[in-house]
């Protein structure tokens, strides 16, 4: 895991037996890890596959030295949405750096304030895989606990496309652009972490209800106050803005593009 202090050193990432080398620079005065360089691994792919395109930019899958990678291009965002898109990408970069030693989340390959590169995790999104094996959820709970121990709350585990079933049937979690990364484990942090857990249990209730324990059912029955308020007031407005204004939906696993 990288140190937040000033570092300049060559880094080596191994992906499926392949390697890519780049220089990464992190400084204390750089906002949101914005100096993590990606210049040496910028992808010269003539026609990458677009997974998602909206006012917040473009997400593509491309191939670098035979290795599939995911590229989030902030430069493709609308001018008025670019600050928000950059902040979301910086948040994802910060979260992935904290989780560099955790299996089941993408590896951060680079972030320079305009382009974020991360490793590609092959697999099917939850709504397609429909995992019914209780071991999948046992591993998913362990994955969430590893995030939380490192001071990261995903904050978007309610969305099925963010959960993958990888090629060996294990869970993986993607899309950390609204993750909590401050690392402070106070009362509010614990509330958010519990909501991460509750949303995973909702998926378990959908696909593997027979494996829910009594304690897990009790957690499902007691959403946090902010979650109840959100459902009662803000959720409809959010959907209206997200769909009408941004044309936004999470579909990395489906490969669809907004018209």
From TrEMBL:
InterPro entries: Kinase-like_dom_sf (IPR011009), RIO_dom (IPR018934). It holds the Pfam family RIO1. Keywords: ATP-binding, Kinase, Nucleotide-binding, Serine/threonine-protein kinase, Transferase. GO terms for molecular function: ATP binding; protein serine/threonine kinase activity. Signal peptide: none annotated. Gene3D superfamilies: Transferase(Phosphotransferase) domain 1. It catalyses: L-threonyl-[protein] + ATP = O-phospho-L-threonyl-[protein] + ADP + H(+); L-seryl-[protein] + ATP = O-phospho-L-seryl-[protein] + ADP + H(+). Residues 81-180 form the RIO-type domain. The keyword ATP-binding applies. Its EC number is 2.7.11.1. This is non-specific serine/threonine protein kinase. The lineage of its organism: Bacteria, Pseudomonadati, Pseudomonadota, Gammaproteobacteria, Lysobacterales.
